[in-house]
Amino acid sequence: MDDADPKPTASVYVDGFNLYRRLLEGHPQHKWLDLEALADRVLPDYQVSSISYFTAIIKALPGKDPSSPQRQQAYLRALATLPRTEIYRGKFRIDPRVMPLHPTVLDADGEPKRVKVKKTEEKGSDVALASRLLIDAMKGVADVYVVCTNDSDLVMPMRLAQEELGRQVGLLSPMEPKRASNELKQTGPIWHRQITPEDLAACQLPDQLKDARGTIRRPEKWAGNSESPAEAGLSNQEPKPPGGVYAP
């Protein structure tokens, strides 16, 4: 496409926790993910102008890997070196709760037995994503607004961006099309595309980067048999054609 007919612009909004649970959990070789390379690869027909990444800062918990927070911090430092990416940090809240057993067990009075549990909840990410999406849509910062999630809690802001603000919204799913949220698909996005494991493998950050604080290294636990940074770079320069597009 020449200068007289430029690509439409796209702003991308990534639900980091949902992306992790749907595609990255259990696949450490893909966790060192270059979000800009990924967006350029799955949206080759757009000029990706910005990526907003929404996540929550994890804490070391009893019985869990104590080095997980350090790996997350290394990744966030790496993402911060990308020029088009902005990180929005929420938090995890841990509260004691009294909840019924599953499956239900009745006590002597016929009431469901309850136990005290430690409940972990992500706080702030969904609200932050919805707010950023709607503010950007009101300002008209891009031609299309791409939401990467499978969380139906984001149905309302996607509808508002389209129906109230007249903006085009795309759905980028970390799920197979048949397993993607029906509620999200029913918001009427202009298209629905899927992120695949092949996309993740082709879009890894270099094993080492630098920022103002020094060298950032890919965590050893995230090493794998993925492409080398040089091979990934070639893939990113020649993105696949805009396939993987599904009717909303």
From TrEMBL:
Top-level taxon of the source organism: Bacteria
One GO MF term attached to the UniProt entry: RNA nuclease activity
Stretches the record annotates as Disordered: 212-248
Biased composition (Basic and acidic residues): 212-221
Domain NYN: 11-185
Entry-linked InterPro entries: NYN
Signal peptide coordinates: none
Protein's name in the database: NYN domain-containing protein
Provenance organism: Microlunatus parietis
